[in-house]
Amino acid sequence: MDTFSYPAGDGRPLRATRLGTGPTLVLLHESGSGAGHDHGGGLLPLARRLTDSYTVIVSEARDADDAAALAEHLGLGNAAVGGTGRGAVVALRAAADHPEPFGAAVVIDADEVLGAVGEGIDAPDGIDLSTVRVPTLVIPGTAGELARALPQGKLANLSPCGDEDPAQWMAPAVWAFLTTHLTRRPARVLV
């Protein structure tokens, strides 16, 4: 596990942790910023389960431009971006605004942030979900309407199991999705 800093678009240093090797998945944690909490500790169990096949970067990112700055810093050409809670919203925005480095997206538990409203989704930050043109895996727990609202959305076929570690039941679906949607181009590491 390698923890490093990278410069956000406004120059502020942000933190990230890199695990594993292979094609890259950038996971953005719930708050969208590491200030005052465990820097994405909730995503580390999932990241660890994917490291045999993938490089997983768990990062703070306040917005899509921060996620793009991370991709640029690492020289990513075809990565997936994902997140949980507020990080899922940032990931969707990054996939819509920066499809060059992010060719796929994974949305985990964004119910409270995206909130289903009537027949559609009330997406914060003015995200037009129709602009998210990359394949997107939506993990259950997230509003089912979200998968239908995304042009290439796919609802993961799994169900949470009681007190089990969520990473245990999510990892196989995320692994299969990444295997299908990421090409095996090496990332250029500049850290």
Describe this structure in words.
The protein is α/β, with parallel strands linked by helices and 191 residues long. Helix content is 29%, strand content 25%. It is built from six helices and ten strands, in the order βββαβαβαβαβββαβα. It has helices at 44-50, 64-74, 86-97, 111-114, 144-149, 166-181; strands at 2-7, 13-19, 24-28, 55-59, 79-84, 102-108, 116-117, 120-121, 136-139, 153-155. The strands form two sheets. The chain has an eight-stranded mixed beta sheet with strand order 1-2-4-3-5-6-9-10, with helices on both faces. Strands 7-8 form a two-stranded antiparallel ribbon.
Topology:
Blueprint: E1 2-7, E2 13-19, E3 24-28, H1 44-50, E4 55-59, H2 64-74, E5 79-84, H3 86-97, E6 102-108, H4 111-114, E7 116-117, E8 120-121, E9 136-139, H5 144-149, E10 153-155, H6 166-181
Parallel strand pairs: 3-4, 3-5, 5-6, 6-9, 9-10
Antiparallel strand pairs: 1-2, 2-4, 7-8
Helix pairs in contact: 1-6, 2-3
